[in-house]
Amino acid sequence: MNQLDQEAGELLESPYPLPMESLLSTIILLPVNSPLAQQKRDLLQHCSFQFTDALSLKLSQISSSSHYPRIRRKSLKLLYDLLTDPAVPQISLMTLNGLKSPLLSSFRPKTGQPMSQILPEIVAIVASRIFSDSDQLWEELLDYVYVSITGSNVTQEVQEMGFRVLSNLPENLLNRLMPGFDFLWAKILHRLRDSSDLDSWAAAIQAASRFLKILPYFLGADRLGMAMSTAVNSTHNLATKVDPRNATVTQRFLEFITQMVTKTRPRLLFDRLNYVLESMLMIAESSVATVIREGAIRVLKKIDESNRRIMSRQLERLDRVNLDGFFCSLMRVLVGAANVEKNKSTVLAKYFMDRLSTMHGGKIFARHVRNQIGVFAVAQEWQKRHAGLVTICATADACEEVMRNHVEELAIIVVDGLKDPHRQVRCAATDAIKALSVNLAPTLQEHYHRRILLLLTEMLKEKKDTVWGKAIDAIRFFSNGCTPDNLEPYLPRLVEALLAHLKNGNTTLQWGVLAALGVLASSSENRFDIYYRHTMDAIKLILFGVANASTKLLHAHCLGCISYIAIVVGKDTFANDADEVMGALISLQGFLLETDHMVKVSIFQVLVKLCRLLGDDFLIYVDDLMPSLIQSAQTKIYKEVNRSCYLVYLAMPVLLRLAISQEVILEDVQEELIYFITALVRNLEVSGRVLTNIHVKFVVDGILKILNENSSENEIQEAEGFEIGPQEETRNRGVDHTVNAKIVVFLFNYFVQQSQEPASKYCSIFLPFLLRACKDHDPRVRQQAVRGIGTCAEFGINEFKPFAEEAAKSLDSVIRHPGTSSSNNPTAHVIAVSSLGRICGSYFKSINAPQVVADGDNLATKETVNRMVVQLVQSSKP
């Protein structure tokens, strides 16, 4: 036996409490770094892992018998650790039963000495481990709980302990208290009405919450309603008192109210929901603590989230008085929350303002908001002026139609707000301008551009970056609805002020400046030309500055701004900067492959703009853009696929030329190009019908140009047979004829199938090539050719008729050829039969169909004949 085991035996086997009390007092009284205290802690830890049961029994005895409060509390804390620490061995069931008696003895109060707050939790843990899966009862504990709560002569401390034990009891033991539930519930409500002792009050809340969680239906509407009224009244009383402890307890009450509404059947409290609304708003208005105001409105938010349908119905039923009162209360909440920026109460109040405005529409503004905003706008307190402007923001979307009848009134309020001496009011005014710039455009911009633009420009000269950011955002939104004539007189000052902030190094602010410059340029049109050089030089300083992970996103914003400006000034003006800008775009590829897809979409928007602007000059950059385009074309995100595919369509001619060129290129490069084009075309299925008539013509012209350039015996065999001679084979070395023909036909098929109507009118142009390809020596080319003929027959009805007879003969020859037998090339055979059947069915009068069927004995199988007959029968029906 080692020394620690020997010391543990002496400590735990002693019939007297003194050794354990001495150890605990040493740990309590001596400094943490004391060697003796560390020695005693080591001994305790050894006992915890090697003699867990014996130590837990000894600690429980000390907790009930020691005359020293600090030792009792320390022993209970150590016992709690033994019960809850997963690293400590589990206490046996026999030992847990042995803990019951000393723990109950610990509830007997010592004269003038408070009981430990951790004791109820320990008792609950022991009870749950012994009785959770058992029909047995801890009768002594249940008696203690009932008597400590309902007894006539018990002290508040004893009753508080009873509440705390009850709130932690396992469900099966709690159910055993149901015969005396009415007495228990009455005592809980009585304690909730009396907030003289906050600890006892908080314990009563916990007990009520426990009943609510376990027995919501048993409580019923009457009991719940009484509990609700009691809780709300008590919460309101606490909320108006200046006491730091009140805030914590009141928060518990608010959580209890939320639980009552969200955890029970909605119908139980439906009739009292209006009372809850009014009460929570009253608490939010009158509370002296921010956390209580937020908590009250959060209760309403939780109710709305958990019972949105019922809450919506209740909000819709609000009469004029209650509706006006609700909105007025929300505005007062905004007033109270104004002193703290980014206050949660503001967010919650705006949420309900938007909800009410959406439900009740313009009458909210016309009947109440308009007058209240006007009163608040001229109030002496800056908080009210601020609240009025926030209310405009919160109601602008839903009340747009009515607000348009009061543009002048609202414009005066926001203009005065921009001139307000208080910074937060000015910031709120910029937010209001953002909202009204969208909902009241272009009337607001047409009549008030002078005053608003001048004031926003002045705000850019202030010394607070939050003001700058707000003003820059407001300029962006407001300018978007302005005409070039509106903006022209103010462009010099606006551009100068924005560029000054572009150079200040604040990344977030720079993002805003770049967005504002882009909108300003677009709205100014050709009036922005004279600012191009100065603006472009400033942006390029950032774009070509230090490049690292933290600046890549800023560079992407720079490119977005440049694309807007380039479109405005035109290709000739932008030409000198185009190569540098495209170089920057290409350098961002590595970042694009890793970044968020929304950033990719914005970059592709830039590429599309520049592609349109530069035209043929853009094609020289396509090779370098391939990696990011390939990846994005295969993603599952619609917007990204759409943009990347659209961009490649614009560049398709050069890609096709590279893919099927006769020039000798590395095999892996050619395979990548082929894979790239086919993958992009397949993604039409994901991105939808993104091709317009112009795009289709552009692509078709590119394919035709390649066909004309490569139209030779090397590409398409015009002979009747399928064999190619040795001389021709020698001439074809270095050129993958099969890939060339197959890719062209494959692309054409996909374009027609996916774009259908826009591309179908080009069928007649490609049919001669397809008919010749039916005689190609390579079965894969023939397979694509017969598929293409079937596609033309399906989508190019009018264009196909003149070729129907010849197409039927070509398909017939393919079906008859030994190289297309069902055993050697079943896919080509099935496609050819299907295409021929489609021609016979849809173009019966344009071909000699009976002759085709008469020759059926020579076709590959009876199945082929059957298909043909079915098609003919269907087509002959009236």
Structure description:
The protein has a domain of 120 residues. Helix content is 75%, strand content 0%. It has 50 helices and no strands. About 7% of the residues have low confidence.
Strand coverage percent: under 5%
Supply the helix-strand structural class: mainly alpha
Shape: extended
Radius of gyration: 41 Å
Mean pLDDT: 77
Largest sheet: none
Number of strands: 0
Unreliable spans? 657-676, 682-691, 712-739, 856-861
Helicity level: over 70%
User: How far is it from the N-terminal to the C-terminal residue, by CA?
Assistant: 106 Å
Give the count of helical stretches.
Answer: 50
TL;DR of this structure?
With 878 residues, the protein is mainly α. Helix content is 75%, strand content 0%. The protein has a domain at 759-878.
Keywords:
single chain; 878 residues; mainly alpha; 75% helix; extended; ARM-type_fold; Importin_beta
Which SSEs are present, and which pair or pack?
Layout: H1 3-13, H2 18-29, H3 35-50, H4 52-65, H5 69-84, H6 93-106, H7 119-131, H8 139-150, H9 156-168, H10 171-175, H11 181-193, H12 198-214, H13 216-239, H14 244-262, H15 273-286, H16 290-306, H17 308-316, H18 320-337, H19 344-360, H20 362-377, H21 382-395, H22 400-403, H23 407-418, H24 423-439, H25 443-459, H26 465-479, H27 484-487, H28 491-502, H29 507-524, H30 532-543, H31 552-569, H32 571-587, H33 589-594, H34 597-614, H35 622-633, H36 638-650, H37 652-659, H38 667-682, H39 684-687, H40 693-709, H41 726-731, H42 737-755, H43 757-760, H44 763-773, H45 779-795, H46 797-800, H47 804-816, H48 826-842, H49 849-854, H50 862-876
Keywords: Cytoplasm, Protein transport, Repeat, Transport
Protein name: Condensin complex subunit 1 C-terminal domain-containing protein
Subcellular location: Cytoplasm
